[in-house]
Amino acid sequence: MSDSNRQSYSQREKEKTFEQEFLPHIDSMYNFAYRLTFDEDDAKDLVQDTYLKAYRFIQSFEKGTNAKAWLFRILKNSFINDFRKKSKQPAKVDYQEVETFYNSEDVDKSITTDLRIETVQDMIGDEISNALNSLDVDFRTVIILCDLEGFKYDEMAKILDIPIGTVRSRLHRARNLLKERLKEYAQKMGYKN
Amino acid sequence: MSLSSTNSFENSPVEKPTEGTPDHSECLKVLNLVLDQEATDEEQAYFKQHIENCMPYYEIYNVDKAIKSMIKDKCLNQKTPSDLVESIKSKIYQQAD
Hints:
The complex is a heterodimer.
Chain A: H1 11-22, H2 26-37, H3 40-56, H4 67-83, H5 95-103, H6 106-111, H7 117-122, H8 125-133, H9 137-148, H10 153-160, H11 164-188
Chain B: H1 24-35, H2 41-52, H3 55-74, H4 84-96
Helix pairs in contact in B: 1-2, 1-3
């Protein structure tokens, strides 16, 4: 961020912004951190690191803008830089493949995963939650940001540092994958589709 | 194109969308926008008109909507540790001193 975007905060303003605009998002932040790391201690560390960074770099936070989006962006970057390296994550998603998928004829085929609404509504929380957790972290993240946290596409683009078109295609792919997983659960449970 | 112009299937009418026939792939692109309240008024109207006449897409839209709302209801249950806020605050005030 350039110096021209820097805000000036008095010590009192700093504390007020932190307490009134940043801390109220702690539950969403912890939930996001836990769904990235799957570990309570790591999630706690990640949220703590995020808040310490947010306080230290508070002059980069533009007053009146979306504090929650700003915090989520810091958390996501901390996760990539500090946590993802430590854990044995599977190979990164090939986004070229994702984009190709979105523009290909396969889209129609895949979207017609014949999951019925009655089946979805009969599912209990664990199945939805497990299906979400089973997705690759980049797909999981867009669903969390969009469906859980209600971020708009332009906010997601800023949080993730990707173009809006990529937000859309990644979300589309993530939802199809999620439906495939839910369908597998439904079949295991013996639902008639 | 000229190389295959002798192919009798090249201009087969079934390969071209007939006028007035709903364009499913276009509808598919708009589906997520409508679901996420990102669609323009025109896109919304286009989509609404399409699903009124298209049972499979009507079903897909409703399944997607149900999944979206279930995710929101069922996946926000991770309990924040009670000492986290205090721990963050104490670290910050330590730094400030």
